[in-house]
């Protein structure tokens, strides 16, 4: 099934479930914070997993905790937010994973709580958890690669090796993985190889429109530079 079709299927499931008041509060609160394609993937899958495997009372309690943590973040109180997220990380599998992603995001951001090594450790922990759906693990791997490259561009070749399996046909985030691969190649000065990757993205079926537009733009940019 194409990536877009998978996303649409997940969204249909979520739209039915968020009519429940408790999860709608979480969706409304967290939806305001979405800022990237990867975050959208996390939100959609969180809703799908929660409402297909939920344990009502515990999930309701953890929903309250998560909303409270996001409120602290909006208020700039990262200390209290991190404390709640760490507590959630040992709870229900979906919320535990969601909390780890959020904690890693805070630790990777500029500020007095910045700790890139800890953020990388959390992303790797998620990626290595065989109990999780592949899309969660691939999302964590992509975040790990992006942050690792930001920390030390000299790791680029090793990171390209790490991202290669995610670029294979059938992987849930193939287009996003290819996009990241193309960006790394471009920043390394390997423009011809980067262009091939971006053209490959454009030619894939079912690619999210935003990803395809960015790939077309990059391919055109590289062509104009040659």
UniProtKB/TrEMBL annotation:
Residues 24-198 form the Ancillary SecYEG translocon subunit/Cell division coordinator CpoB TPR domain. InterPro entries: SecYEG/CpoB_TPR (IPR018704), TPR-like_helical_dom_sf (IPR011990). The chain crosses the membrane at residues 33-51. Keywords: Membrane, Transmembrane, Transmembrane helix. It comes from the Bacteria. Pfam families: TPR_21. This is Ancillary SecYEG translocon subunit/Cell division coordinator CpoB TPR domain-containing protein. The lineage of its organism: Bacteria, Pseudomonadati, Pseudomonadota, Alphaproteobacteria, Holosporales.
């Amino acid at each position: 099934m194409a990536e877009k079709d998978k996303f649409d299927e997940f969204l249909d499931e979520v739209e039915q479930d968020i009519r429940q008041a408790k999860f709608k509060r979480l969706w409304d609160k967290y939806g305001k914070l979405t800022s990237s394609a990867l975050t959208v993937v996390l939100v959609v899958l969180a809703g799908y997993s929660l409402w297909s495997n939920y344990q009502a009372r515990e999930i309701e309690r953890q929903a309250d905790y998560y909303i409270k943590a996001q409120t602290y973040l909006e208020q700039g109180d990262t200390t209290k937010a991190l404390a709640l997220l760490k507590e959630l990380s040992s709870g229900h599998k979906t919320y535990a994973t969601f909390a780890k992603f959020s904690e890693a995001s805070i630790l990777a951001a500029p500020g007095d709580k910045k700790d890139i090594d800890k953020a990388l450790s959390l992303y790797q922990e998620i990626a290595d958890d065989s109990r999780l759906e592949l899309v969660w693990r691939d999302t964590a791997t992509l975040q790990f690669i992006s942050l690792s490259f930001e920390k030390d561009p000299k790791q680029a070749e090793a990171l390209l090796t790490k991202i290669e399996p995610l670029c294979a046909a059938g992987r849930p985030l193939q287009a996003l993985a290819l996009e990241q691969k193309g960006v790394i190649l471009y920043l390394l000065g390997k423009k011809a190889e980067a262009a091939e990757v971006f053209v490959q993205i454009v030619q894939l079926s079912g690619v999210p429109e935003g990803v395809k537009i960015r790939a077309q733009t990059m391919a055109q940019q590289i062509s104009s530079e040659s």
